[in-house]
Design brief:
The chain has a five-stranded parallel β-sheet with strand order 2-3-1-4-5, sandwiched between helices. It has helices spanning 17-28, 35-43, 47-71, 88-97, 107-114, 128-146, 158-171; strands at 7-10, 31-34, 76-79, 99-104, 149-152. Helices cover 54% and strands 12% of the residues. The longest helix is centred in the N-terminal third of the chain and has 25 residues, at 47-71. The protein is an alpha/beta fold. The structure holds adenosine-5'-diphosphate (ADP), shikimate-3-phosphate and magnesium ion (MG). The site of adenosine-5'-diphosphate (ADP) has 15 residues, from helix 1 and helix 7. Magnesium ion binds next to helix 1.
Length: 181
């Protein structure tokens, strides 16, 4: 059973974490944060620039700090970045501080959704398909290990997905019992 009202979205690049989270939060009466967007607004530079200057390790340190801070709040929906689950400390915080939704996406669709993007430094490679497949092989068990809900984003638009998720989230809430007289 969930420890707080918080909802955390995990999954690979292009699964729709940012898009679905933005829809889900107002519908649940919660506040939306995207960890990448928080990092961008705090540093004043984009994610690619952080990777350039500080390397992936520097970015992961920032990501862990932001996730620790935001997940400690109550009443938030957080769209994480695809690699947030790599660190054990992040997995532990997400798992214990809210409900974790793992958004899955078929590789072809993931490729299409991220194709025109130059903001995801890990995809600036000669073969983004192979990169996405390799990342997924490494990360899939980590997403699954902390997921309360797993949902495929391939079949539905984000509006429909948000609606389905709201139903599934309310089904896992503890019912309030009337007092016996
Ligand atoms: N369910 C969906 N149906 C169609 N397009 C989607 C869906 N979810 C996301 N997208 C599109 O895919 C792209 C990547 O989505 P985004 O929310 O940035 O993914 P993530 O944060 O998981 O990397 C965006 O252009 C978004 O509009
Ligand atoms: O998968 C990853 O390691 C990353 C995913 C990105 O976020 P999205 O999953 O929202 O694209 C962003 O955090 C960064 O480019 C690294
Ligand atoms: Mg995102």
């Amino acid at each position: 059973m969930s420890r707080t009202r918080n909802v955390f979205l995990v999954g690979p690049m292009g699964a729709g974490k940012t898009t679905i989270g933005r829809r889900l939060a107002p519908a649940l009466g919660l506040t939306f944060y995207d960890s990448d967007e928080v990092i961008i607004s705090r540093t004043g530079v984009d994610i690619a620039t952080i990777f350039d200057i500080e390397g992936e390790a520097g970015f992961r340190d920032r990501e862990s700090r932001v996730l620790d801070e935001l997940s400690a709040l109550d009443g938030v929906v957080i769209a994480t970045g695809g690699g947030a689950i790599l660190r054990e400390e992040n997995r532990e915080r997400l798992r214990t501080r809210g409900q974790v939704i793992y958004l899955t996406v078929p590789l072809d669709l993931q490729l299409r959704r991220t194709r025109r993007d130059n903001q995801r430094p890990l995809l600036q490679t000669a073969n983004p398909r192979e990169r996405l497949a390799a990342l997924q092989r490494e990360r899939e068990p980590l997403y699954r290990a902390i997921a309360d809900i797993v949902i495929d984003t391939g079949a539905n638009d984000s509006k429909r997905l948000a609606r389905d998720l709201i139903k599934r989230l309310s089904a896992t809430r503890e019912p309030v019992q009337p007092q016996g007289r």
